[in-house]
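Morning!

As promised:
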Amino acid sequence: MAKSDDGIHILQGLLVFGNVVIGTCGIALTAECIFFVSDPHGLYPLLEATENDDIYAAAWIGIFVGFALFALSILGIVGVIKSNRTLLLVYIILMLITYAFEMASCITAVTHRDFLTPNLFLKQMLERYQKSETVNNNDKWMTEGVTKTWDKLMLQNQCCGVLGPSDWQEYTSAFRIMHSDADFPWPRNCCVMDARGSPVNLDGCKLGVPGYYNSNGCYDAISGPMNTHAWGVAWFGFAILCWTFCVLLGTMFYWSRIEY
Amino acid sequence: MCSHWVVLVFCCLGQLCADQSLKPQVAAPQLATNNPTLTTVALEKPFCMFDSSLCPNKSYIIYLYAMKESASAISSLVTDNSSKPLDSTFQQTSGGQLGPYKAALFNVPNCASPPKLADVGDVNKVSDVLKQYLFRVGDDGTCLYDPNFLAVCNPPLAPDTTYRFKYVLLDSTEGIMKDQTLWSDPIKTRRVKLPLKIDTWPGRRSGDMIVITSILSVLVFLLLAGFLAFVSSAVMGSEGSSAETRCVSQTIEQSEQRPHLSSE
């Protein structure tokens, strides 16, 4: 009898510890997802325009799941210490629902990361950047978002185009319709700027003289933050779920061992 | 006096057998990386190409003629019968389709001290270096539509078209052609693709997506199976224990009754 008592106590201790970890990880998940949703790099308009912004949906789910995990872990600790069958049953059922939501978030984040290829951003940039004739308000909103984001990206990261400035030369674009190739082989923001925000040498920039135009592409500046976002949500969520799986199995076993 | 006459003689001889093997060249690709573009071509100015024809104390101008390669079948003459260079414009030749048009005129570049290309790195000198070293055909997008424009118009070229260029040396006082280069090698402007043709399909799934999806699906399945197993065992257990307690209470009743019977 004493041995099984000891065993139960050890199981209780382990479950309490497991729930503490789940609670703290839940808070961490909430904080991380709030950080991603706040979009520190200002890249959301690009995803919104491709209608492919599901990594943000995954982060939103992560915020609420993290908070739910924290609340449920407290319930779990109380239930384990009191050895209350009802509390633990409620805990298990709610945890399973939360588990399902978190699983959805992880899978969404990692699946939609796969869609964010250079060609996607290239096509969107060519079709939307400085597009002059927008069809409706939604189109106008997306076009303005894309234009502002690209202008900011090219200025801050000293880059041009997705793969390079040759993107503007190889493809026709909404930009090309409005601006002649002789004056604007590529947008002005592709030129190296001086302190006042005007090109250092406009002829050098137009001709492609090294040092007067940005010769590298912006894809790294876009994909870096987006990868961090998607993998942060997906893999951290996955780790939490693996741990939660063990804790839940232990809780179910414990639940079956205590008497009413 | 004597040397002056000697120079003049050599000058005239030079004009008769001018070196005609030189052609206009595209500007150095390490300097002008974006060349040719959709509608422009940057050409090197004719450094040291006409030096054998230059006489001192005379002023010269260089004309640049451009034509589409298809026009060479129609006409590729840049002068009329009296060696006067043609005054054709972009509009008159339909953008070089019917024959050469005059795209530019500028002074003879200095052969003795050409611009140093390394100076391009200096922000203060780069404008001068570029202006002295090369000329951009197709640079002016507005002169075609400006009715007040009186100078030589250099409108943008057509995309995906082959052009040829020629430099002509002109004596500015007499207005007669003194020398010309050959027609340049055919230079083609860029061709554009439509962005509709860009394929945005991501291709195969990445490894992490497969790992996460498969492992999580298995874990969820195990959790649900475990949950059902434990709940059903708890239900069975409680049924079995309630049947047991009934049996036990019955046997207790029976055992209580039997001592009564035996005592009686």
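The longest helix of chain A spans residues 219-257.

Hope this helps with the figure draft.
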